[in-house]
Write a structure and sequence with these properties.
Helices cover 34% and strands 17% of the residues. By secondary structure, the chain is α/β, with parallel strands linked by helices. The protein is globular, with a radius of gyration of 18 Å.
Amino acid sequence: MNAAGEQRRLLGTLEVPVIERNSAGRSPFLLTCDHYGRQIPPELGDLGLPASELVRHIAWDVGIAGVAERLSDMLGAQLIAQRFSRLVIDCNRPPQAASSIPLLSEATAIPGNQKLTPAAADERRQRIFDPYHQRIAQVIDQRLAKAKPTILLALHSFTPVYHGVARPWHIGTLYNRDTVLPPLLLEALRSEAGLVVGDNEPYAVDDATDYTIPVHGEQRGLINSGLEIRQDQIETEAGQIAWAERLAKALRAIEQSLRAQALLPASA
């Protein structure tokens, strides 16, 4: 069996990568979580990494799963999340980007990603990346067909220290072309005393290095933004609950503001 055939056999029994919650939710917010999980297909082993690396931020967005689930429930908002580790394939990177299947993450080399054949890389895309994004596209199609208001909000978390540099923000907005949701998020979050809120910090959205917002938000003409929460804020269940409550309060107020501006129908 050649390398491509072996890869197909190995990945052919993968779990469906998509996790969904509140699929019948009435909220206009559609939540996505590209780095929700850290599963690795059993046939890929541990990608040559020690267990200590596979619980770090290089493998997933620490804490965001708990926030996303609780926020989804609080708002009655549909959540679409992805169960596999970003080290297998990053579902917020264009497949052609060098960081799609990382050879190096921060300072950690990923042995299991070295010298992948194009066929092996393409198999990961077909089995993990494609079904996840096809599902997001399908849900958006269904919502738009029903004239259901849809605001795309991509949820992420970031490490407090990266390459030795401390990051001061508790949370940051991520956006590129949208001028509606990001300023409302900034205003709502900055109204809370003591909260350090980044404006396109620690990251900004870019067509070359991001996928979910450019493709599902901007190309579809949806109001959209991303949120990045610092991981030390949401490592514990208590932190996840607190942040979900904070965001739910802010997003409910934003929804009412958008309705008042006639940017959303008066009732969904």
